[in-house]
Write a structure and sequence with these properties.
Helix content: 10-25%
Distance between the termini: 248 Å
Radius of gyration: 59 Å
Low-confidence stretches: 1-16, 33-43, 364-368, 372-410
Number of helices: 2
Strand order of the largest sheet: 3-4-6-8-10-12-14-16-18-20-22-23-24
Structural class: mainly beta
Mean pLDDT: 82
Largest sheet: 13 strands, mixed
Length: about 400
């Protein structure tokens, strides 16, 4: 009898699990992750801590009612809890914290660093009344802060802008950073290795007090921003020591590079303005390129006939812009009319009668009036009177002669 063949039963593959199992697993994983995240310290949203809005690990900062204490890295003071309020608070950063970040519009009364800590800026309008340091620190980041006082040296790193309104120990400006000095500022020393020193707010005649200023170095590029019209550092800073160590230090005024800093602190002005001198009837007499803040040289002026040159219409002793200078002229008075020469008297003819000759003076003499004629006879009246007069004259002459002879005898 043939042997019976035994056929083993086929193995049936398991049916695929429904997709809802995968969805359930994903939900469980997300829930577990959320629980772990909640239990572990990490980044939190900005939350009020006194007057500040603070971001960072919850265990890296505390507010005790008066001071915000930062004990770990990753803390950012994003802003103020009430931006409309003038309130400010104090911040104390513990040793071992590498940096503290600030956002925009943060107002800090006293910022204390117990160790080497960096202040990183991430916005504008920040303010620190007093920067209390135990060791030198630095300020960096694409933002700005106004500091009233700083007790130890500060390094200004890219691309921070620091405005100093009061006294500070010293500050070093590195490439990409900016130090702005306000009229009330004073420093023991400024070291300028690059970047910008902004003196544009300084008032002429009231320079800020800086003991020493060292600027430049090999391959450095520095910028000094000065108020328009300045021609030397001494107009803006009262320096006891000045060290210009080479490099290129540009002088910028009103947004224009106007020159270069020289070793003695003066500005070599290279920017120019065009001065045009105009004469009679708009004739161009001369055109000159004049260095800013210098005087132009006037040309000779020839006045037209009947006029004289009296000067120029504007001052050109301190050139600050392109200028047209026009000559002024004054009309001379007309000459007085001359009298016509007298004509010669006419000779003959029927002209005007000539003047009578001037009378000749005759010495006075005694005379007797002419005798009158007698009405009856027509003879000269008193011929006998003439004879009597003649006889009287002879008698008088005889008496004079006799008197003279008597004087001789006597």
């Amino acid at each position: 009898m043939p042997a019976e063949t035994v056929v083993p039963p086929r193995f049936r593959a398991p049916e695929p699990q429904p997709r809802r199992h995968a969805l359930t697993l994903a939900i469980v994983v997300c829930a577990l992750a959320a629980v772990l995240f909640a239990l572990a310290p990490g980044q939190a949203d900005a939350a009020p801590a006194g007057p500040f809005d603070v971001e960072g690990p919850a265990d890296a900062y505390t507010w005790d009612g008066a001071v915000l204490s930062v004990t770990g890295d990753g803390v950012t003071i994003a802003g103020m809890a009430d931006p409309t309020s003038a309130a400010m608070g104090d911040v104390r950063v513990a040793a071992g914290v590498g940096a503290i970040n600030v956002g925009s519009g943060v107002r800090i009364g006293t910022l204390s660093f117990a160790g080497v800590t960096a202040l990183r800026l991430d916005g504008a309008g920040n303010e620190v009344q007093a920067f209390d340091l135990t060791r030198p620190a630095n300020v960096s980041g694409p933002g700005s802060v106004t500091i009233a006082e700083a007790t130890l040296p500060l390094d200004l790193l890219p691309s921070a802008t620091v405005t100093l309104t009061g006294g500070a120990y010293s500050m070093s400006i590195w490439a990409g950073a900016t130090l702005v000095l306000e009229p009330g500022a004073s420093l023991s020393n400024i070291t300028h290795f690059g970047g910008t020193l902004d003196l544009s707010h300084i008032v002429f005649g009231a320079p800020v007090r800086v003991l020493g200023y060292s600027v430049g170095g090999d391959y450095t590029s520095n910028t000094i921003v000065a108020p328009f019209g300045a021609t030397r550092l001494s107009e803006l800073m009262t320096l006891d020591h000045l060290f210009v160590n080479g490099g290129d230090t540009a002088i910028v005024e009103d947004g224009e590079r106007v020159g270069t800093l020289q070793d003695d602190g003066s500005f070599l002005i290279t920017a120019t303005r065009t001065v045009t001198f105009v004469g009679w009837e708009g004739q161009v007499l001369a055109t000159e390129e004049v260095p800013l803040f210098s005087a132009a040289t006037a040309p000779d002026v020839e006045a037209p006939e009947g006029y004289r040159f009296t000067g120029w219409d504007v001052d050109f002793s301190h050139i600050v812009q392109n200028l047209t200078v026009t000559a002024l002229f004054e009309k001379l008075p007309d000459p007085a009319p001359q009298p016509e020469p007298a004509s010669a008297p006419p000779t003959g003819g029927s002209g005007a009668p000539s003047a009578a000759p001037a009378p000749t003076s005759v010495p006075a003499s005694k005379y007797y009036p002419a005798p009158k004629k007698l009405a009856a006879t027509g003879d000269a009246a008193g011929w006998g009177l003439g004879a009597i007069a003649a006889a009287g004259s002879a008698a008088a002459a005889t008496a004079v002669v006799a008197a003279a002879a008597g004087k001789r005898r006597g």
